[in-house]
Amino acid sequence: MARMAPAAHAAGEGPVALTTRPTAPGLGAAIGAMGWVRGRYAHSAELALPTGGAQLLVNLDEDALSSTPLKGARRRTGGAALHGPYSEPAVIDPAQQRAVLWVAFRPGGVRPFLDAPVSEVRDRLVGLDDLWGTDGAVLRERLIEAMAAGGPRAGLRALETALTDRARRPTEPDPAVRLAAALLDRGTPVGEVTDRLGWTERRLARGCTEHLGLPPKRYARVRRFQRLLGQVNAGHGPPDWAFLAAHCGYHDQAHLIHEFRAFAGMTPTAYAPRSPRERNHVPLGA
């Protein structure tokens, strides 16, 4: 899935980034990618678009993170926090991305590190001190120490160790939910997914909300939106919105525009991401 803190386009300081896969045994099943990024940005605010996935962020520059849903109040935490699966756009501060360690979880991959179902952190920015108690409260300082001693790779190794120690259950995502997520990600109708799994719709809804954080239809809508953004940023010239509507599974162009407004807070023609690789970050102002 798309990451909350990928390589940056910076103003005044060239972007420096490291993206890797976890090396600790077992974590690869739960984590799609992790990394470190450092940079400075010309704009003062940007919109983070929903991916349906969860991310862990550690702000190494200052002990603060914040997120403001377009239809909600600003949420503030200390510098180590979990972005639960978002199903709506949120305004974030580029200044809080000047030096960040991040983890992007696979579908269902964050569940082993939480005491409650993933739905409890849906559309929320939650401090790790609230989620993990003392372990979460001291994590940022431990990572800063590791970075000072050995650089970004040492910081990422320390973060892997913290996640390994925190796992409350096997880190392999539930196989049935993982299959459901893959099918929904490809645009398979919910009814067909239940048939493939041999589940009822109620059981599918329960499994998705517990492990993915979103009900199956909402998850499918977010992932369809992400398929659309992938096509828009593929570099094939100006988007043909009517073609993309049919190609990505929308009823028509009007349906695409409605869904785009729901998940991006803007029309498709107003969408201008930070870069094609950073399609979920949309600058809002200088």
How does this structure look, described?
The protein is an alpha+beta fold and 286 residues long. The chain folds into two domains: 16-166, Jelly Rolls (Sandwich), CATH 2.60.120; 175-285, Homeodomain-like (Arc Repressor Mutant, subunit A, Orthogonal Bundle), CATH 1.10.10. The protein contains eight helices and eleven strands. The strands form two sheets. It has a six-stranded antiparallel β-sheet with strand order 1-2-9-4-7-10. Helix 3 runs antiparallel to helix 4. Residues 1-12 have low confidence and may be disordered.
What is the element layout, followed by pairings?
Blueprint: E1 16-20, E2 31-38, E3 45-48, E4 55-59, E5 65-69, E6 75-77, E7 80-83, E8 90-92, E9 99-105, E10 125-127, H1 128-132, H2 134-166, H3 175-185, H4 190-197, H5 201-211, H6 216-232, H7 241-248, H8 253-264, E11 281-285
Antiparallel strand pairs: 1-2, 2-9, 3-8, 3-11, 4-7, 4-9, 5-6, 5-8, 7-10
Helix pairs in contact: 3-4
**Mean of all residue-level pLDDT scores:** 92
Which regions are unreliable across 5 or more consecutive residues at pLDDT < 50?
Answer: 1-12
Helix share of residues?
A: 25-40%
Strand content: 15-25%
Count of discrete alpha- or pi-helical segments spanning 4 or more residues? 8
Major beta-sheet overview: 6 strands, antiparallel
Outline type:
globular
N→C terminal distance = 28 Å
CATH T-level fold name of the largest domain: Jelly Rolls
Task: Give the tally of structural domains.
Answer: 2
Structural class: alpha+beta
In CATH, the architecture of the largest domain is Sandwich
The CATH top-level class label of the largest domain: Mainly Beta
Number of strands: 11
Order of helical and strand elements: EEEEEEEEEEHHHHHHHHE
Radius of gyration: 18 Å
Q: Strand order across the biggest sheet?
A: 1-2-9-4-7-10
